[in-house]
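Researcher: Let's try something more involved. This one mixes different molecule types, so please make sure each is placed in the same coordinate frame as the others.
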Amino acid sequence: MSTTQPGLPTQHGPSTQQGVPPVRMAEPGAGGRFGDFGGRYLPESLVPACLELEAAFRRAWNDEAFKGRYHALLSDYAGRPTPVTACDRLSEELGVRVLLKREDLTHTGSHKINNVIGQALLTVDMGKGRMVAETGAGQHGVATATAAALFGLECVVYMGELDTERQELNVFRMELLGAEVRPVTSGSRTLKDAVNEALRDWVATVGNTHYCLGSVMGPHPYPWLVREFQRIVGEEAREQCRALLAGKDPDLVVACVGGGSNAAGTFAGFVETGAQLVGVEAAGGAAMARGIPGVLHGMRSYLLQDEWGQILEAESISAGLDYPGIGPEHAYLGSSGRARYTTAEDAEVLDALQLLARTEGIIPALEPAHALAWLARACRSGEVPAGSTVMVTLSGRGDKDAEQVMGVLKGNRS
Amino acid sequence: MSTESSVEEEVWDKGPVDERGLLVEPTLRAARDSGRKLLVGYVTGGLPGWIDHLAAMVDAGADAVEVGIPFSDPVMDGPTIQEASLRALQAGATPPSILEELRAVDIPVPLVAMTYYNVVARAGHRRFARLLVEGGVRGAIVPDLPLEESPEWERAARVGGVETTLLVAPVTPDDRLAEICARSHGFVYGVNLMGVTGERASLADSAGILARRLKAATDLPVVMGFGISGPAQAVDAAADADGVVVASALMRLALGGARPAEVGAAVAAVRAALDGS
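Model: All components are placed in one shared frame. Result:
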């Protein structure tokens, strides 16, 4: 695994590897495999629905009319394209040139809307009238509730009870949007258990229900489909960076990783450039750093698990990164060396959140603050050389976390 | 299909396997062919007192018993078996601890492990098969391992002496159903309804339809499960099939503190209803 690799690895642009085909983020192999990872480990009851979804997505993604509807909604409804902001004061502070891809400026406040609009269109195309979703921080739940309202679909969102407490405002937003939020009281009462409950709902309702999965995880075709619906983040950012960097690509591209959807979308735009790709997990949910390959939620990937295969509970300040696994394509990108995965601790995440707020007037969500926290540490240690150019995906805005952060920071001060 | 690790083979291919337990398919076929409706019980391995509950089910006329090897994230299970799994894990249950307990008793009917794939994969296919056989468990059901993902385990199980039973759902199309029947061993498990395990007020219409499709497709014993909460539903579900699985209804009793005799009485009531039908 690449997590212990010191310093900057060699460039991985398509022309630099000899004899080894360059890593691309194209369609996965047969059975939804990314190398040894991915697959479709599901009860027989759900296999036909996944085959139907795969066929619907394959048809849609080759259909210019579908893509036209998707892109029109992203621009006219969700506010795309989002800008890339050059951060002068933060750059001065860190000694590297920092560019932020501003997914915080989308409608609903995070990149999650990109995926959800695509899946809502598929839901309608498949003739289904109901969506279920899991949510951790609530951003995917809010996005799903938003799209459900827009398309007139019934919507049920499963959310760990612990997360409904730390993201109370998002629960209310979902309810305002007409969704039903069902708190999940089993297991760790976080994202993992919300996925379990969403799957249990889906198996009983699959005739009229689409499972709107929120990250690049789960059974095939989800890791592929969600990455494709998030690809727009990376493709926009690559062209915007080139405009700002006189045609060059950044040296580093950094994104936070829970399941890994914003990172997958970002990396998809840069995987064929020479940029080094860095995914930052929460230290308490670091499946790449501390996990072992296994099977959960329909996919083979790195998982936090004990010696007999029981899944361990992730623990992070960020509800959105509180997941004991990682998307299978990240497992593949990491094991192939094309991307590296590292971690950030809760305390440095809070520091990074404040740093961005004070230097740039942008309050990030806790999730992308992990990416910034790693960057700040790597700049201080010299791991990222002074003068490098770094593109960070700011996957969401910090409004949802303000109350929680206030509790921690005021608590620390008193 | 990837090959299994050499480390695993080194460790687990050494020494003769101490084969125990009754084979599933010959035993169930013989019972079925004698005109008996099959009754399969279920117990979550590792729950305090579970061996006594298992013995009581057998004494009351179960033809086979599924032994749940608990997993932390059982997505095909409803609240009862989730709770049983959680309690067993909290009591420290592991695959070896469960199978070690089984080695100490003689169970005169076939046993079938019911677990999730990560438990199998983490132990290693050959090692898991060997653990089962040495514990006298000759069948396995792994519900999150559909046709496309199961060949590697099926092969390791076959070589190791374990019969892998596959599930068919109401939405399974005919071509998949035929392939599942062709690859299933022991029996074929028909899932009565679209949903998770757990008791239901009435038997779903999908149960009879699926049972008839399965009987038309295979000579394997056809056993229907999910949602069977008592004798009347068992009789209905078995009408078009060879037998039924009763699981959550028995585990609800066990979780509520019922003595083995009470669990046995529940099994005996289903047995009597099936025999009288």
